[in-house]
Amino acid sequence: MDHLLPPRPRGAIAAIEACPQADVVFVAHTGLDHLVSLGDVWRRLPVRARIKAKWWVVPAGEVPREDRVGWLYDQWEAIDAWIGAQRSSPSLPG
Question: Considering only Cβ atoms within 10 Å of each terminal Cβ, which end of the chain, N or C, has fewer?
Fold first, then answer.
C-alpha cells in the first residue's frame, strides 16, 4: 500500500467477534496528511486544507466468517486506492 500502514487486525476482529450482529463502518479521509502532531495543528490553525472523507458500511451479514484478516486487508487496499485517487485529483492538494 502506498498511502497506509497495514491494518492491525486483532482489535478489529475482536470487536467484530464481540458483537457479530453489528455492521462494520470504514472511513477513508485525505487532507489532514501533514498534520502529524498537536503542534502541526496549532501552527496551521485555522486549517485551510480541503478535507475529503468517504464512509461505507458493511452489513453484519456480509462480514465474512472465515479469513477476516484477508478481508480487512482488502478493505485497507480499497481505502489506499481511494486516497491515491484523491491525491491525483487536480481539485485537491497533494
Answer: C
For 38-86, give the DSSP string: HHHHHHTPSP----EEEEEEE-GGGS-SS-HHHHHHHHHHHHHHHHHHH
Q: Rounded to an integer, what is the distance from CA 84 to the centroid of its chain?
A: 12
What confidence tens digit (pLDDT) does each residue in 49-90 have?
A: 677 899 999 999 999 999 999 999 999 999 999 999 987 766
Find out whether 71 and 63 touch, Cβ atoms under 8 Å. yes
Amino acid at 87: R
Q: Which three cell numbers stand for residue 51?
A: 478535507
